[in-house]
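Board notes, transcribed. Complex of a protein with NAP.
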Amino acid sequence: MQGKILVAGAGGQLGRELQRSVPAGCQCIALSRAELDIGDAAQVRVVFAEHAPDAVINAAAYTAVDRAEEEEAQALRINGDGPGHLAAACAASGARFVHVSTDFVFDGSASTPYPPDAPANPLGAYGRSKLAGELRVREALPAAVILRTGWVYSALGANFVRTMLRLMGEREALNVVADQVGTPTWARGLADACWAALARPQLSGTYHWSDAGVCSWYDFAVAIAEEAQGLGLLARLPAVRPIPSEDYPTPARRPAFSVLDKSASWRDLELPPVHWREQLRHMLREIEES
Ligand SMILES: NC(=O)c1ccc[n+]([C@@H]2O[C@H](COP(=O)([O-])OP(=O)(O)OC[C@H]3O[C@@H](n4cnc5c(N)ncnc54)[C@H](OP(=O)(O)O)[C@@H]3O)[C@@H](O)[C@H]2O)c1
């Protein structure tokens, strides 16, 4: 693969991992929110005129799921309009576009993994804003690749794993929701999937990406505790107790089941499935080594 690749949202979990895995032959122009506000159509046009990218990966998003309930207009500007501006600029210049979306476009009422063409029905403002972004991208650039993911974490960034490590270091016991299931996604693997999508010029449409396997937030927390203790990141194993979602009320409703069917991605991106617990171990090792 060759060319100039613009990464929007360079300061986020995915944005940073993308910069660590730029394929040989590619020049990566990584722009943080301060350098490119994707919600500002004029800024997007200026950046395209300045850099003339061959392709764009959109890692920029409003990701505060609970706050979005009170700031839906702001979430829509960033997650709905922003990807639309990028897709329109790509369509006008002939650049390819990989956009990242979310499992929260689904309502979680399924009991088998969601295929990419399953009907969307978001439960909250964040999911609605991300779905609006998908529709804007499809409209402006049907050849775009939309990669939906969920439960993203990395060694750098605000995420469930880092929050658990902090709380587990401070407390003897923790209660964690056990009736929401999905699959964690290490941002490094998601970055690889984005690059793999770009490397396949014929690829277009909606794909799903997370690590392999299924767990609840409770299972994930237990695994974090065990793996972190094994690596010496925790001095002792905290007690982790399963609780129902109703005992941990949040402003935004979350899907009870958000397992994505990744079979098309594993086939078309030629990336093998890796179990979420193995990826978790890699990430914790990275923290341990740093
Ligand atoms: N995190 C998850 O669990 C999760 C789950 C499902 C899907 N996703 C999707 O995966 C993608 C990557 O998420 P992530 O975990 O890497 O998110 P993240 O760590 O929150 O990063 C998002 C980045 O976008 C930036 N940003 C916000 N508004 C922007 C704007 N108007 N213009 C340009 N940049 C802007 C943020 O900057 P500031 O920090 O300065 O605001 C931040 O650096 C997103 O599309 C997200 O919706 C994430």
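The first helix runs from residue 13 to 20. The chain is about 40% helix and 15% strand.
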